[in-house]
UniProtKB/TrEMBL annotation:
Protein's organism: Salmo salar
One record GO biological process: mitochondrial electron transport, NADH to ubiquinone
UniProt KW keywords: Acetylation, Electron transport, Membrane, Mitochondrion, Mitochondrion inner membrane, Phosphoprotein, Respiratory chain, Transport
Pfam families: Complex1_LYR
UniProt topology in membrane: Peripheral membrane protein
Location relative to the cell: Mitochondrion inner membrane
Sequence ranges assigned to domain Complex 1 LYR protein in this UniProt record: 48-105
Assembly description: Mammalian complex I is composed of 45 different subunits.
Gene: NDUB9
Region entry Disordered, spans: 108-143
Listed name of the protein: NADH dehydrogenase [ubiquinone] 1 beta subcomplex subunit 9
Statement: the UniProt record of this protein carries the keyword Electron transport: yes
InterPro entries: Complex1_LYR_dom (IPR008011), Complex1_LYR_NDUFB9_LYRM3 (IPR045292), NDUFB9 (IPR033034)
Flavoprotein as UniProt keyword: no
Length: 143
């Protein structure tokens, strides 16, 4: 029963993402701007988009039961980001990035996967090497 709920949640997320992507694709208009204006805005929005893409993949991995299911979701997420890659209008870029951010916050997993050796993981700081201490002064060899 729990597995069916995860599939329903995933399908709702996919449907909403498709609607957002289609809405912004329909309103795309290309116009030329000066390259100096484009460079600064493009780099910051590019970094934000890359960050959102990575976070989307990690979120999909939290919800996926099997790696094969996640791979299909990863390809779909990539296609959504590729479809909106050529948006030139900075207002549309910001709006799309903020809507994607809201989607990620909405679908955040209540119990996300944490690698065992990462902070918060089950093996974090387990079997740490013993600290190297200075020997007491009476045991130091004095030549």
């Amino acid at each position: 029963m729990r597995h069916a709920h995860k599939i329903d949640v995933k399908n709702q997320l996919i449907d909403k993402t498709i609607r957002i992507a289609a809405r912004y694709r329909a309103g795309v208009t290309k116009h030329r701007t000066r390259s100096s204006q484009t460079t600064a805005g493009t780099m910051s929005s590019r970094r934000a988009a890359i960050s959102l893409y990575r976070r989307s993949l990690k979120l999909a991995l939290d919800w996926a039961v099997q790696h094969q299911l996640w791979r299909g979701q990863a390809l779909y997420i990539r296609s959504l980001f590729e479809a909106n890659r050529n948006i030139a209008d900075s207002r549309q870029q910001r709006a799309l990035l903020s809507e994607t951010e809201k989607l990620l916050d909405t679908w955040k997993h209540p119990d996300p996967y944490v690698p065992p050796t990462a902070p918060g993981g089950s093996k974090y700081e387990r079997n740490l090497p013993s600290p190297i201490l200075d020997p007491p002064s009476h045991q130091v060899n004095r030549h």
